[in-house]
Amino acid sequence: MFKGNKVEYSRFVSSDEEKKKEVPKLMKELITNIHNWDSLGPSRSSVLEMPKVLERELFKSVMSGNVNQVKNILRSQPQLSVNCVNYQGYSPLHLALKNKDTPMIDYLLRRKDINVTDCALHAIQLDMPLQLQLIFQKMVETNNNPEIEKLPYIGSIDFPDYMTPMMLAAQCGNSEIIDILISRG
Description:
Layout: E1 2-3, E2 6-7, H1 17-33, H2 44-64, H3 67-76, H4 92-98, H5 102-110, H6 119-125, H7 129-143, H8 165-172, H9 175-183
Antiparallel strand pairs: 1-2
Helix pairs in contact: 2-3, 2-4, 4-5, 5-7, 6-7, 6-8, 8-9
């Protein structure tokens, strides 16, 4: 039935009744074997879907609080970014903050390739002063600029572009975080 990667169509164009009876059998064979064409390699859709599958596994592990599983996924899949975002625009660090999962937050912040984006604002909103200080420390390390922690984060999906950490802490009425921000300058 197959010659290389092409279907031999001559069987379908004959007016012979005997060959017409073969059509259902040939169609079944075609459908059964369509995924076994080794010479074609992986389908384009499966290649494109693989990162999404890996990302879903990463997010599922973060949401379940399984730090070891997250470590294993990121170690075994170096092409997977720890900064990937889900359909809501949240990274694994965002989700760990929303879950108030301190071990997961600590692990993610220890990674050199982590991007904290607007996570300081989330830590303020969620009243997480210790994690806020770790996020600020990471921001300063990454950007080599202590002033960066005072600036608004442009492009946040949850906060307006003008929102600074001090503004948000004041809006939330969190005096402990306000004190931290004042002490940091």
